[in-house]
Design brief:
This protein has 305 residues and is of the alpha/beta class. 27% of the residues lie in helices and 27% in strands. It is built from 9 helices and 16 strands. Strands 3, 5, 6, 7, 8, 15 and 16 form a 7-stranded mixed β-sheet that branches. Strand 10, helix 5 and strand 11 form a beta-alpha-beta unit. The longest helix has 14 residues. The protein is globular and about 60 Å long. It starts with a strand and ends with a strand. Bound molecules: NADP nicotinamide-adenine-dinucleotide phosphate. NADP nicotinamide-adenine-dinucleotide phosphate binds next to helix 1 and helix 3. InterPro entries: ADH-like_C, Chloroplast_QOR, ER, GroES-like_sf, NAD(P)-bd_dom_sf. This is Zinc-binding dehydrogenase. It comes from Loigolactobacillus binensis.
Length: 305
């Protein structure tokens, strides 16, 4: 089977497609024929050595974290009814490969019949992080939440899940994405590239911020514009808010099996939608990663196997 391997820290040039044999099938194994792996910032940032401080890795390694595919074989200790089912999951040891040997039951989820695998797989490293952020700061219908990175793989789900929670949403985006984030449901959209401080003066003050961008200067500018603010970041591990009634929290926790079930049901009920920017064949992985790193972002890019 084919797999995509990171050989060094020189960016996409260090990616190689290799032929490997599937890892040992055990009683705990579920063998999944992988159809899609999401391209996450986690992947390309690791390739360029940008996460060395927080994600030490041993090279060479298979890239990718999430997968979505069809179950081909089930180990003795696993649920036999999984056979032939559509599943999504996380594979912390690398997911960009044709055959996934999934051995951790809490990291594998069956996909409802009316949800496409390509849609469901965007939950991994996307909606799961968004839901975790919302749970972490107890968003209620009384909140107005400012979201940075609103057009991305996490941000597009943040807007939708915040609206489902009844909150008002202020979305920050680049000029080319203002209409896009508005169409997803943001109540107010702000262009972070132009006079943001002035725009922030003219809006209802947010009660909370969910940051997916991780720019200290951007958070400083936002925090300077309001007296009270609870700031949560998925991308910046530390930040000192400038004012007394402001808090900051970073977390990369999980949402558990119930969280994933809830998200899959929301997709099945059409209460949330997966925004898929593009699908690339896995052999075009370099192009896919360069677009994810440098191009305009609108939801999630997928590698197709
Ligand atoms: N802690 C966790 O558990 C966890 C889990 C998942 C993800 N994350 C992190 O969350 C972050 C977002 O992930 P993602 O998958 O949503 O990324 P993504 O799909 O690449 O989206 C990032 C968004 O950031 C915006 N952006 C890019 N450069 C910017 C800049 N200089 N200033 C302001 N906005 C900028 C882009 O929107 P525009 O084009 O409109 O500017 C883009 O839509 C990543 O850092 C990721 O590592 C953390």
């Amino acid at each position: 089977m084919k797999q995509i391997v990171q050989q060094n820290f020189s960016g996409v040039d260090g990616l190689q497609i290799e032929t490997a044999s599937a890892s040992r099938f055990t009683p705990l194994s579920v063998l999944v024929r992988n159809k899609y792996t999401p391209v996450l910032p986690y992947d390309w940032m690791t390739e360029y050595g940008l996460l060395k401080g927080i994600r030490p890795v041993k090279l060479p390694m298979v890239i990718g974290y999430g997968f979505g595919g069809i179950v081909e074989k089930v180990g003795l200790l696993r649920d036999k009814s999984l056979l032939g089912k559509k599943v999504i999951g996380a594979q912390p040891t690398g997911a960009a490969m044709e055959l996934i040997n999934s051995q951790l039951p809490p990291l594998l989820f069956t996909v409802p019949d009316n949800v496409a695998l390509s849609e469901a797989v965007t939950l991994i490293g996307g909606a799961d992080a968004a839901l975790h952020a919302i749970n972490s700061i107890n968003v209620t219908a009384r909140d107005t939440v400012l979201v940075t990175g609103a057009s991305g793989g996490v941000g597009t789900y943040l807007i939708q899940l915040l609206k489902l929670a009844g909150a008002q949403v202020i979305a920050l985006a680049s000029p080319n994405n203002l209409n896009f984030v508005k169409s997803i449901g943001a109540d107010i959209v702000l262009n972070y590239q132009e006079e943001l401080a002035t725009q922030l003066k003219d809006i209802v003050p947010p009660t909370k911020v969910i940051d997916t961008v991780g720019r200290t200067d951007l958070l400083q500018l936002i925090a300077a514009s309001f007296a009270e603010l609870a700031i949560f970041s998925l991308s910046l591990t530390s930040f000192t808010p400038p004012k007394a009634h402001q808090t900051f929290k970073f977390s990369n926790g999980t949402i558990g099996v119930r969280g994933y079930r809830r998200l899959l049901n929301l997709l099945a009920d059409k209460q949330i939608v997966a925004y898929i920017q593009a699908k690339y064949k896995y052999t075009d992985v370099k192009k896919a990663h360069l677009t994810a790193k440098n191009g305009l972002k609108q939801g999630r890019i997928l590698l197709a196997f």
